[in-house]
């Protein structure tokens, strides 16, 4: 096999290896309420679905509302074969914009985090 072909095959193999590592992290797949959604009724829970199974002990959320006020939430639990983090909202949410900061540890040990927002309509 010519040296250039060996080099190209090696580069392709390394690229595939890095791509599969990136896919092994628990990324936010969907949320209820959805990202940037406006809802008519304040949610009683938040459901965050990830691309990988989560370790509940090291995964969670923080919610802030209008004027960056902290929102009281309950203990999270895993659902849907450990890919969905369900967190009850114990505060009554007033109309306004809310930000959810999440952090997740997948069962294979990779950490991820992010934020998204939704709005409760008046």
UniProtKB/TrEMBL annotation:
Signal peptide: 1-24
Chief site of localization: periplasm
GO CC entries: periplasmic space; plasma membrane
Alphabetized UniProt keyword annotations: Copper, Metal-binding, Periplasm, Signal
Domain CopC: 25-120
SUPFAM superfamilies: E set domains (SSF81296)
Gene3D superfamilies attached to this UniProt entry: 2.60.40.1220
GO biological process, one term: copper ion transport
Coiled coil: none
Entries under InterPro entries matching the protein: CopC-like, CopC/D, CopC_dom, Cu-Rt/internalin_Ig-like, Ig_E-set
Molecular function as annotated in GO: copper ion binding
Pfam families referenced in this protein's UniProt entry, alphabetically: CopC
PANTHER family xrefs: INNER MEMBRANE PROTEIN YEBZ
Annotated family: Belongs to the CopC family.
This protein's name: CopC domain-containing protein
Organism annotation: Rhizobium lusitanum
Organism lineage: Bacteria, Pseudomonadati, Pseudomonadota, Alphaproteobacteria, Hyphomicrobiales
């Amino acid at each position: 096999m010519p040296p250039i072909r060996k080099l190209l095959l090696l580069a392709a193999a390394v690229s595939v290896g890095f791509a599969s590592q990136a896919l092994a992290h628990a990324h936010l797949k969907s949320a209820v309420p959805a990202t940037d959604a406006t809802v008519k009724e304040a949610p009683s829970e938040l459901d965050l679905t990830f691309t990988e199974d989560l370790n509940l002990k090291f995964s969670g959320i923080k919610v802030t509302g209008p004027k960056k006020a902290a929102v009281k939430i309950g203990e999270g639990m895993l659902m849907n074969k450990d890919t969905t983090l369900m967190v009850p909202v114990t505060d009554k949410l007033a109309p306004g914009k809310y930000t959810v900061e999440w952090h997740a540890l997948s069962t294979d040990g990779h950490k991820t985090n992010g934020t998204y927002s939704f709005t409760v309509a008046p």
